[in-house]
Write a structure and sequence with these properties.
Helices cover about 20% and strands about 45% of the residues. Strands 1, 5, 6, 7, 8, 9 and 10 form a seven-stranded mixed beta sheet that branches. The chain has two helices and ten strands, in the order αββαββββββββ. A hairpin with a 2-residue loop joins β3 and β4.
């Protein structure tokens, strides 16, 4: 009688493991879903010209780095709205935003394009939202 109790328990355990491993981490185009990244705040020294002469004015600041599986992430990312349209697409280089980042409205229209170089914003281009008439 004990054998019948153990077998279904083992079977349910296998089913749960298989279902949990089916979670897709990458989109069809190979970009990692942003939800799988871990955000960490890393310290760095803010050094300016005055700080060289007055060491007490050096400040510790923090910047955000994104990690995946314990390492700084390098590659494409995407985040989606609940309706399936992309919320934004971009890429990271050693955990920092780098390259072209495109943000979208919930209907799929481009909202803005930001250009980053190692977490520093280099350029910004915003778009007007197009309104469609429902007249036929």
């Amino acid at each position: 009688m004990k054998h019948f109790v153990k077998r279904p328990t083992i079977l349910w355990g296998i089913i749960i493991i298989l279902l949990s491993s089916c979670t897709e981490k990458y989109s069809p185009d190979g970009a990692l879903y942003h939800a799988f990244l871990e955000e960490k705040h890393e310290p760095y020294w803010d050094i300016n010209v005055r700080a060289l002469w007055r060491p007490r004015q050096m400040q510790t600041k923090y910047h955000v780095c994104m990690y995946f599986d314990g390492e700084r992430y390098t590659g494409k990312v995407i985040q989606l709205y609940a309706n399936g349209y992309a919320k934004f697409k971009g890429q990271y280089l050693e955990g920092k935003r780098h390259g072209k980042w495109t943000f979208y409205y919930d209907d799929g229209q481009a909202q803005k394009i930001l250009e980053y170089q190692k977490n520093r914003l280099r350029s910004k281009k915003e778009f007007e939202r197009e309104q469609y008439d429902d007249e036929f």
